[in-house]
Amino acid sequence: MPELPEVEVVRRGLERWASGRAITDVEVRHPRAVRRHTAGAADFAARLRGHRFGPARRRGKYLWLPLDDPGVCVLAHLGMSGQLLIQPAGAPDERHLRIRVTFADPAGGELRFVDQRTFGGLSLHRELVVPDSGALPDVIAHIARDPLDPLFDERAFHTALRRRRTTVKRALLDQSLISGVGNIYADEALWRARLHYERPTASLTRPRTTELLGHIRDVMNAALAAGGTSFDSLYVNVNGESGYFERSLDAYGREDEPCRRCGTPMRRRPWMNRSSYYCPRCQPPPRPRRTVPVAPGKAGTRNVSRRPGK
DNA sequence: AGGGTAACCTGTATGC
DNA sequence: TGCATACAGGTTACCC
User: Fold this and answer.
1) Gap from A257 CA to B15 C1', Å
2) Conformation bin of residue A180: beta by default, left when phi > 0, alpha when psi is -120 to 50
3) Which of A263, A161, A257 is nearest to A213 (CA)?
4) Which residue of A86, A97, A114, A142 has the fewest CB atoms within a 10 Å radius of its CB?
5) Which residue stretches belong to region Disordered (predicted)?
């Protein structure tokens, strides 16, 4: 369950049902579910066995559980279809069960990683203490803080947007600029901010950036309060329950339905091998940044977006 | 250097 | 019914 609110729902479940428990065994049923571990699945299992999970952490869409083996942690990414479930030991195996973790207190259930598309997985890493960044797994050092992180640096984010020569939705999905935002919440926040997804980031003023970030936080907090967004049984919490934020979506998945602000039919456009949903009236496409040079002798070429100061 | 695209997978929905 | 195609909430390697 991919974006920040859904991952946070899972983190809370792990914190409650997995943290503090001692691991007795790990069964890897699909080799690809263990990521970036050259020593292989058997070694992965051996390094977990006998250790205890610490508190559940999250940055953006990544989750991790430190082990009582100091400086070592288990990192999880759900990809497009991954689930972390706490199941009674006797429950029938799910069709796409990839990894099973059993504990010294079996009455508390076992932890299962289930993943239809195998874009997600678990991996084992060193947890580094980065002076300015807190403790986080070494391989996600490039992942930016997420908008719900109290230490998210809004000023630096805005500076980065101004410097980039890209469009606003691309930037929102760039996990090295801001993490946790995916296709759904990007479309929702852009709709709320009345910004077209192809708006150049360099054209955003500081107040616009502040406003956009406010909408991202609002929609994510609202989704979190509703248990996340679920379209089907693929996206569930650790107890297998769906969130119900889908009914509150204003943009995502609403092609041809009336904009909840102005009534204009919403549109869907193919975008980066997926879709963007927007209101053509509330979120008009940006004007081209540069005018085509006029023929010599004509009135003058006007450059609409000359950058201020040299 | 940084932006943009294709690939990694399995399943479901839709149209012919 | 069968078959082909499009699409799905993410990330990465690799083009240019």
Assistant:
1) 22
2) left
3) A161
4) A142
5) 282-310
pLDDT in tens, A56-94: 999 999 999 999 999 999 999 999 999 999 999 999 999
Q: Round to whole Å and give the CA distance between A174 and A198.
A: 14
The most distant pair of C-alpha atoms in chain A lies apart, rounded to whole Å, by: 85
A208 a catalytic residue: no
User: In the annotation, is A247 catalytic?
Assistant: no
- How do A23-28 and A97-103 pair as beta strands? antiparallel
Catalytic residue among A11, A58, A61, A192: A61
% residues pLDDT > 70 (chain A): 92
Nucleotide nearest to A201 (CA to C1'): B3
Is A66:A127 a contact under the CB 8 Å cutoff? yes
Strands A82-87 and A267-271: unpaired
Q: Which residues contact A239 (CB under 8 A, 6 or more apart)?
A: A13, A85, A86
Respond yes or no: is residue A310 known to be catalytic: no
Q: Which nucleotide is nearest to A272 (CA to C1')?
A: B5
Reported pTM:
0.92
Domain locations in chain A as residue ranges: 4-140, 154-278
In CATH terms, the fold of domain A154-278 is: Helicase, Ruva Protein; domain 3 (1.10.8)
User: Which residues make Cβ contacts (< 8 Å) with residue A279, sequence separation at least 6?
Assistant: A191, A251, A259, A261, A262, A264, A266, A267
Query: Taking Cα atoms as reference points, which of A231, A165, A224, A171 lies closest to residue A197?
Result: A171
Looking at domain A4-140, its CATH architecture is Alpha-Beta Barrel (3.20)
